[in-house]
Amino acid sequence: MKPVYAGLLALAIAAGCNGTNPLTNPDDGSGGGGGGGGSTPPPTTDVGSGAARINEDADLYTVSQFAYDPGTDTLTVRGLPFDGADAYQRDATITLGPNAARRQFAVYKADPTTLTDPYDGGTITQDNYIAVRGEHASGRSRVTVVRSGAYYEYGYGAWEIERDSGVTLPSSSGAPATGQANYEGNYAGLRTFQGNTGIELTDGDMVIEIDFSRLGDRGAVRGAVTNRNAYDESGTLVTALPNIVWVVEPYSISANGRIDGANIMRYIPTGSAAPEVFEGTYTALMLGDDAEEIVGTLRITSNGRITGVTGGTYDVETEVHQSTEEVGGFVLER
Q: Is the pTM for the entire model greater than 0.70?
């Protein structure tokens, strides 16, 4: 049933890391059963047994509300500065997610026009916010990520994940959960740059693997984003990007299906003996009678090697470092 994704983790090991095992903890040299490899994941907290909504983490700026109107295909985002009337319109020319057989992500853009100061009639320029939104085919789970490339630092933004039902973790006898599961689907994100304005869209194939029956009753999680690309604001391909692969993350699943952890991308650039280690975090919610869906967000910060500013080419041979932050969403199923 899943020929496109067969061996994604093996592919990431071979292609994304030039033969280096990405499921090895780079801090201590141990195998994939090690810890977070230097990243400290947020604590895994209970979200309740039913419907749940999780907003952006403490490092992103608070957004009071995401609302989607399917009748007008309009996304409303309240709480961000200089984003017009809060109504984000769909850019129907862009669809993110390499696998058309899975649910892909839509792209929404804030109104770029100016607003008028009612006191003196002066015009106020609005910023170029972009949002990516993915919803599972079941209609029970969704994720939205919004960022702006108008700032010299990473810029303002936020994310939100939702599920409309609870979850029953796999178990043959009630509790604790047992067995292993493989989840696959599309990933889409937004990249901004410290020290430069501009924004890029990203996407890729994503897989998460879970062992429910190990490390007590909190399980273990690992995963990868492969076939990863960056695009400019019009959806034109900028460059291919390295795979994101994270180590086994233990004790990361709450009893009600929330997952929190750290991710690590580790690879050896051509002509270099030293590995690059990119770190970040992820948050996700499982749902369904057999935990058949996962919706979540992934955040990674790295010294991405690029030439030029945004729209440049990713080049592991060029020692031009610019700190980048990528925040993306994923909608996966077993």
A: yes
